[in-house]
Fold these 4 entries.
Entry 1:
Amino acid sequence: MVFLAVLIAIAAVSRVPFAIIPNVQPTSFVIITAGAVLGPESGFIIGSTVALTSNMFLGQGPWTPWQMFAWGMMGMTAGLLKNTPLVNHKYAMVLFGFVWGFVFGWIMDLWYLVAYINPLNFKAMLLTFLGTGYFDLLHALSNVFFLLIFYNSWKKTITRFKIKYGLLD
């Protein structure tokens, strides 16, 4: 539990200094890497709790449960890759992070559509997804950046802690 709490704290606090750059943060990288090493349950717990924790600094709102779901699913799906060869290939995880940059944005777009758009129709949905595409791209590219630079070293470190302390197996 303590190890998960430390990863949650790192991911949550790392989001704060990057708040001035929309959708650019190392949070997703930490969630993806931790989920890939520790498994789907831990990935979901880390992802969902990071949103709640980081929003204590950046502001809670009706979007928080949607962020919790989106980051939780990001961590869970990364965790589903735990026992596959993809986890050992940095570029496969970079592609995974790139795709999740957009999926996260689409989940948040759904929150916006449900909360603010009336009537909800195809045109409104299309305009919303097109209007936020730039921000989704920023999130995807920041995932690529952080995963390219830090994935292997963080994977090695988390794996070492997991083995040393007999965590989550």
Entry 2:
Amino acid sequence: MLETIMKKKNLFIRIAIGFILGIFIGIILPEFSIATKVVGDVYLKLIKMMIVPIIFVAVAGGICNIESTEDLKRIGFKTVGLYVVMFVLSCIVSLIVAYAIRPGKDVVFTNPPVFEQEITNPSISDFFINIFPDNPIMAMAEGKILPVIIFTILFSSAIVMSGEKGKPVLDFINSLSTIFFKLLEFVMELSPIGVMSLMAFSVSKYGLGIFSALGKYIITCYIACILTYIFAMCLPLFLYTKMGIVKLTKSMYKVWLVTLSTTSSAATLPTSIKVSMEDYKAPEGITKFTLPLGCTINMCGGACSFSCLAVFVSDFYGINLSFKEIVTLIFVATLINMAAPGIPGGGIILGASFLSILGLPFDLMGPIAAFYRLLDMAFTSLNVTGDLVANLMIAKSEKQWDVSMINE
């Protein structure tokens, strides 16, 4: 039994055990829980430590490893453009759902949480000036995520344009990526202890009302994913290709079985390519370009995650987001979406960095981590679904696919 729990793939079970133990410790030993919060703080610092390295290697690797430059020139901009539109539309649907439910609002706490800092709210001109780094090394050192992403995009594009001369740098980045993701695994292995400490502190300080908020948050995320699937994917696909939701869903379940079990876009890629070509009859050339690219930069589930998370955390701490801050939220989510590593639990790191950019506290990422596999099942399923929907729309625009081909 113990050997099974300690297996690498069962990290989420260990996190769940740490979560439950944290609840009991918080109830039985409240003073001890508050005194030992330092353990949870160290865990959060380790997560913060990984944000910049993971974003750098994920974005750089995603751009540099696009193999066919000819395909990139022909349909690359069209594909990326569609991914951005789908992501923004997913954000809008999810924000509407989150603001309709307000999972972090009207929760009764023993000691209501208070956020004493001010949320980042620069002018539009200052915002665009500040996202371009004058010193990329300093931006990395100071943890300024958006300047790091902008520099990484430019740096990666230069590597691709350098051809064979840039290959040694690409090999170095791929090796660095392997090392950083291995380091991320080390940090994630500490999650059960970190979550136990943070959960014990949360229960001892805020009372059991925090479970009401977390439960509403999970329900909100699932409703947002379902409505995003209907309104941001099925509806546009039907309007453009006349492919209905029943016909789309009929084969999509094969992909969902993999995403629900692995919670990894990358691990699902072989299945999604097979379903695209065999079930939906999409052309091989476009499928093998759009789906790997989408696995890297198209994360509609991430849009739901970021939108619901921002509303949840802001309401939890009694912070009102202005319309300009919501627009900034969507813009930031769209950029940071490119850094999604496509691995189980990677959203925990990105969620913390997303909140950090907005100037919101990310202490709740500890308790959320205990449920994150449950959330990631929905987010990953939506991510891969968005890739397949975009793939069909691109194939239709290239006059290489039509819905009638499925019947044939």
Entry 3:
Amino acid sequence: MKTNFLTLLSLTLLLSVSSCTIDINERTGDGETISTPGTTTGVLPEGGKLSGDITKDLTVKKGNYVLEGIVKVADGATLTIEPGATFTVSTNVSSSLVVLQGGKILAIGSAAEPIVFSTTAKVAGGWGGITVYGRAPIKAVNGNATAVSEDGNALTYGGTDANSSSGILKFVRVEYAGKKIGDGTSETNTFTFYSVGDGTILENLVAYKGTDDGFEFFGGTVSARNIVSYGNFDDAFDWQDAWKGQNNSNWFAFQTVTGNFGMEIEASGNTDNTAPKISNITLIRDANTNPEVAGSTEISAIQFKKQGSGIFSNVYVSGYKNLGGKNAYAVLIQDDATNNSQVNTTPSKVVVSPLNYVNSDNLGVWGYAATNGGATFTNAATVTKVSLPTGAWATVDGVDLLAALK
């Protein structure tokens, strides 16, 4: 059965849009989207459907919309989303918002009028979240300058422009992402950034109850400020391919019900990498939180592996307790190679200090999955939780996602 969107939109377009056209999309019964390329431009009508390929500039104003299918912002096109725009994402087909290399997104909400992506069912794993591809450098396995994405799109990523911009994401909340892809067991992240450059602005973002990581960076140079990972099933924050953002601040994770590491950090085995820098991190694990797999060791706050590195300052960690016969630590070094090449260098490329580790087990020591490296630390009681602006951007169904920071 085919549904022709032209019939549904034509009257609205005649009344509300001048000097613009909208893609004509048809969806077949097997979920395939057929797009007429090169015609999307202007303003999406109030209550309209965002679908198919965006090949020219398109603006979405305040209002309620539907997002259906894999929506791709093409090279040379800009998707502008204004404050107060809310998208109900279709879960009947595989849906996600993907910004391709050379495409841009200008999604600029406000604390009072955020841009929200959610689903009717409000069940984790309903859709694929937001993925952005940039043109900044990466170091993949074996130092490769390119790699193929693992988000189901199987696109090559990696570039040479560290300063490239993919646009702005500001006061954006993404709910219930993490749809299974490929083999039926892997999931997408809520926010995924492939080789995104530091000309991109990421500020005041919420990843809410996805089935994989809240935020994951695959190489690139972009930084993020004021970001919240709440109730995501895998890791709150994750990166690989030698991501090296240098101006990150105010990261907050609240793990509840299901959650693995607060932060999972690797550099895809590349000894020669530039350590990312993050100031002001708060990781809180609710008392009812279990790892995805019972008995897993994935219950520590911050894990470094595969040559992962990071310089973190003003870190507040709470609630990481031993569970299922496994130990929880503020910092866990997974392998000797990382300990030798990243931790035990001068200066060290793995720094978590000052650190305030409270309401948790194994105080004062780092954990080591291989050889016990013996690093110790003294709690810095002066380190407090991060401070973030309040408002609708961090409130879901009347629940204040920042309550644990008070």
Entry 4:
Amino acid sequence: MAPNTVEKTPVTLLGLGAMGTALARTWLVAGHPLTVWNRTSARATALAAEGARVADTAADAVAANTLTVVCLLDDTSLEQVLAGTDLAGRDLVNLTTGTPAQARARAEWARERGARYLDGGIMAVPPMIGVPEAGGYVFYSGSRELFEAHRETLATPAGTTYVGEDAGHAALHDVALLSAMYGMFAGAAHAFALIRKEDIDPASLAPLLADWLVAMAPSVHQTADQLRSGDYTKGVVSNLAMQVAGAPTFLSTAEQQGVSPELLSPYFELMRRRLAEGSGEEDLTGVIDLLVR
């Protein structure tokens, strides 16, 4: 009896930086016929040896397959690379990092050219691609039909999370999560700065810091619940008034340790502003309303 083989969806990939190359190798290993193009053609040499077809131009690459995935430097690069390319009847998946507004404009741009469009925000670094246990995934938004048609193919390099028809929502989710990450990095930087001149091994603080951040992370669920209900006093453990009263201790400690408070001061100032115009019995959720203009 002949083996039961399933023909894999052919993919065109534009852009072979670190992320693009990782995507390419994952699709090749999974058996997807792959056509690649990169502005610097030398980057495609190794992939050609691994089974990829190297197109001479971006237009040739797009013409080779219905599904085209773009992973370039920025939105301007995409504009330049696809200028004059026939996109009619194509499925365009854009994994280039951009803003929500750029994604929405690009979706309209693709629609005008006869293509279905899906925007993506990659929540992974290249070593996580093709490694399911690493937990990487991609936010997708835009054409639901395109997403459903190619869900299995898109899930080959990393998990998929569809966040709606609004093409800007993948980028918005991406930036929202990364913004929280940088806030965490800022807090960790301040923590390490506080002990920098002391006889304290940073390696001994690290596990304590990691465990504390993990323990605090579930508070985002309470914040979301308060935002949804509009009741910022719901389930409060440490209210705003108490936390504002404690802020000088953090600032004084920083001064005594010779550490700049610039990573903490803006947040403490927002807390003070919210207390001045809100209720001291609230949680810190009201700070969010001060940020929204």
